[in-house]
Write a structure and sequence with these properties.
This protein has 177 residues and is an all-alpha fold. It contains three helices and no strands. The relative contact order is 0.07.
Length: 177
C-alpha cells in the first residue's frame, strides 16, 4: 500500500476510536442522568403523597398554615439539593468533555503539523511559494489551537462561576419564626 493511503487509514482508525470513546461517554452520562431523573421523580412523588396524607389528617383549619409552611420549606430544600446535584453531574460531564476535546484537538493539530512536515519534505523542489504555503498552514493550525484553548478556558471559568452561584444560592437562609 502507498504510504499516503496507510496514513489515511491510520487517521481513520484513530478517528473511529475517538468516536467510539465519545459515544461510550455519552451513553454513560445518559445512563447516569436517567437514573438521577428517575430517583428525583420518585422522591418527589413520595414526598407529595406524604404531604397529601398529612393534609388529609388535618383536623382544624388553624393547623393548615403551619403544615403548609413546613411542606413548602421542605420542598424548597429538596429542590435546591436536587438542583445542586444535577448541576454537579452536568459540570462533571462538561469538564470531562472539554478535557477530551482538548486532548483530541491537540493530537489532531500535532498530526496535521507532522503531515505538513512530511509533505514539505516530499514536495517537489523549486516550487515557488511552497514553503510559504506550508508555513501559513502551520501558523493557521497554531492560531486555531490558541483560539480553542481560549474558548476552553472561558468555558471552564463559566462552569466555575455557575458552580459558585449555585453554592451561594444553596446557602441556608435565616429561618422565619
Amino acid at each position: 500500500m502507498l504510504p499516503v493511503f496507510e496514513q489515511v487509514a491510520e487517521m481513520n482508525r484513530a478517528y473511529m476510536t475517538n468516536v467510539l470513546k465519545s459515544v461510550d461517554a455519552a451513553v454513560a452520562f445518559t445512563t447516569k442522568a436517567s437514573a438521577f431523573s428517575v430517583k428525583a421523580t420518585n422522591e418527589l412523588a413520595e414526598a407529595t403523597a406524604a404531604d397529601l396524607h398529612a393534609l388529609a389528617a388535618v383536623k382544624a383549619p388553624h393547623e393548615l398554615v403551619p403544615l403548609r409552611a413546613k411542606q413548602i420549606e421542605e420542598k424548597a430544600d429538596w429542590a435546591m439539593a436536587t438542583s445542586r446535584e444535577a448541576f454537579e453531574m452536568i459540570s462533571a460531564a462538561q469538564t470531562e468533555a472539554l478535557a477530551f476535546a482538548e486532548a483530541q484537538a491537540a493530537e489532531a493539530a500535532k498530526l496535521f503539523v507532522a503531515s505538513l512536515d512530511k509533505l514539505a519534505k516530499n514536495a517537489p523542489q523549486n516550487v515557488p511559494g511552497a514553503d510559504y504555503a506550508i508555513s501559513a498552514l502551520k501558523a493557521g493550525v497554531e492560531t486555531s489551537m490558541a483560539a480553542f484553548e481560549t474558548v476552553a478556558k472561558a468555558g471552564k471559568e463559566s462552569v466555575e462561576f455557575a458552580g459558585q452561584q449555585v453554592k451561594e444560592a444553596a446557602r441556608p437562609t435565616s429561618k422565619r419564626k
